[in-house]
Amino acid sequence: MNNGFGKTFHEIRLSKRLSMDKVGGKEVSKAQISRFEAGTSELTIEKFFILLENMRVGIDEFESILEDYTLSNEYKFRQELIMAYDAKDAHKLRKMYHECEEKVKKEPDDIYHKLTATVVKVTLNLVVKNLRFSSREIEQIQEYLLSVDNWGRYEFWVFGNTVTILKDSVLRLLGTAALGKTEFYQILPNNKRLAIRTFYNLAYIALERGNLELSLKYIKHLDTMDISIDYLYEKLLIKYIKGWYAHKKGLPRGSKEMLECVEMLEELGCRDKARELREEITSILRFSDM
């Protein structure tokens, strides 16, 4: 059982002002509940369901609270990484990378520490553009992602943020794998958002490298994902990538669609991204005129 279960259960019980005796009733002892909340022992599924029933908490409600609780630190870390990148804050990114390296040194067998360190290093490199990546760092990404049957939030986060350092052959292999590892990202909204951005990144990198066929493959997959208006930012990025694809194919409407996307991002207040894409469009059009 997930070690966050006990902590989450504890928070819910306290919020409802319920004693361990009240929640456990005759079926689960106070000592068992205490150890479960402390994370020193587990409960059987049957006893866990009894406790939830006694608190009048459904399993779906518990899972939702658990997700918010266990992802808080993870979410803060990723947001911190995004903000550091958006600000092009190399000092902050180096600090985050060194902190990740320290975790790897303390727990060298923890693959999650290694992969997270690589993601931060890739993000730092997007700013400083002078870092090198070992073959082992890339192999670890490939080995881990291929070993997971269904990708969730973490897997899409790792893949989506390391595509820039992967060779075309590895990108094609992992991209094909991602297309088939869809069960979990179809269910949870946050997972789906990461999946959308990952396939956007794949289409973007393929276009950047001149592989229009591969880019179209990911664009078509995005079209099958039933992306609602709740993902407006992502829908605009997809509109941008479609415009760029059309431009690459020599269609006049391509650059117009790209600029329309930038204007809509500006209206939504996404000024940093809009500025980045506007500068990119200027570079693309200049290159096309050469």
UniProtKB/TrEMBL annotation:
Superkingdom of origin organism: Bacteria
A Pfam cross-reference name: Rgg_C
The UniProt entry, under InterPro entries, shows:
Cro/C1-type_HTH, HTH-type_regulator_Rgg, Lambda_DNA-bd_dom_sf, Transcription_activator_Rgg_C
Q: Where would you find the membrane-spanning parts of this chain?
A: none
Q: Which residues form the HTH cro/C1-type domain?
A: 28-62
GO-annotated molecular function: DNA binding
Q: Which PANTHER family match?
A: TRANSCRIPTIONAL REGULATOR (PTHR37038:SF12), TRANSCRIPTIONAL REGULATOR-RELATED (PTHR37038)
The entry's protein name is: HTH cro/C1-type domain-containing protein
